[in-house]
């Protein structure tokens, strides 16, 4: 792997970590808070593409698994991967892959298509897998978990929009492979 790729992967991992420093907003009716860190996952896939985006997310998750408190709210360790938020966390690397692949394959400088790709994968895909995790781990009925996730849609839509705007700007500057 080239030095440039290693640097880009490390930088994106750092961005995901820094977004985790923004305090979570607890909701009370669902054991999952509002976070900014998932925007870093969307950025990883959009900016780095499938392979490098996946690697940056995996490195981040490995750092969390060994106990570093890098998840939003200062959480870390194996417990994160078996808690109420596990479904969302397991979706992260796959979301980066799918966003990277979708933007490369189907995006041809069409803003709305790019937004749709990032939104469907970065918001809907992650939230549905999060609902599956809530059902499996927190024993919440699936429909209740799915409906509870609706609260995330407005904020996550804004995050997806910001990701696409950043992606398009970097693509215009030839920093991102189009």
TrEMBL record:
Subcellular localization, as worded in the UniProt entry: Cell membrane
Molecular function per GO: biotin transmembrane transporter activity
Database matches in InterPro entries: BioY
Keywords recorded for this protein, A-Z: Cell membrane, Membrane, Transmembrane, Transmembrane helix, Transport
Domain of life: Bacteria
GO CC, any one term: plasma membrane
Transmembrane regions: 6-32, 53-72, 78-103, 115-140, 146-167
Membrane topology: Multi-pass membrane protein
Family: Belongs to the BioY family.
PANTHER family documented for this protein: BIOTIN TRANSPORTER BIOY, BIOTIN TRANSPORTER BIOY-RELATED
Protein name (database record): Biotin transporter
Organism lineage: Bacteria, Bacillati, Bacillota, Bacilli, Lactobacillales
